[in-house]
Amino acid sequence: MRGDRRLFASLNFSVDPGTFVQLTGPNGSGKTSLLRILCGLLAPAEGQILWQGANIRSLGEEYFTSVTYLGHRHGVKDELSPLENLRVSNGLNGIEITEDRALEVLETLGLAGREDLPARLLSEGQRRRVALARLVVCNTTLWLLDEVMTSLDKAAIGLVRSLIEKHLTDGGMAIVATHQDLGLTTSSIQRLELAT
């Protein structure tokens, strides 16, 4: 629900390991709300979200430690450097990451030489890359990604594609709100379109 307007109803789908779900729909159709419900930030108005047969509300940390959510706002702290952002965000999620590993990940994402700059000095695309660095080290099963290709150049989109493909190959699942065809090579792709 958004105010008194129902965004979607009778939505029923399941995701198996190795599956990519492309979530589409016009602005205001509820893509972000659905992702926020799936990661437990919002409660559904009715129905339930199940993880391995149990309601996510009853699972608590057992579920939340299996999920990585990247919203359409990148969640990067302006006053922190990319290095600090990556280490702090992972620390808050219970993932220890050494400085050397963090520097390696940031270099992979094209941020070499910018690791110690305050994030406020980075371009939007670079800030998005800082947020995406979490995917390299998160080790979670379910990725919920909201318009993560926004502000990215062609090379960065290719990098995101390869990260998602590796995640799926390793038995992970990804639900991604995007209007872009990522050209994934996985054979298990579902499309879920929300309407206004």
How would you describe the overall organization of this protein?
It is a single chain. Helices cover 34% and strands 14% of the residues. The protein has 196 residues and is of the alpha/beta class. The chain has a 5-stranded parallel beta sheet, with helices on both faces. The longest helix has 16 residues, at 154-169. The radius of gyration is 17 Å and the shape is globular.
How much β-strand is present in the residues? 5-15%
Q: Helix coverage percent of residues?
A: 25-40%
The count of β-strands is 7
Shape: globular
Mean pLDDT, as a whole number? 88
Give, in spatial order, the strands making up the sheet with the most strands: 4-5-6-1-7
Which segments are poorly predicted (pLDDT under 50) over 5 or more consecutive residues?
A: none
Order of helices and strands: EHEEHHEHHHEHEE
> What structural class is derived from the secondary structure elements?
alpha/beta
Biggest sheet details: 5 strands, parallel
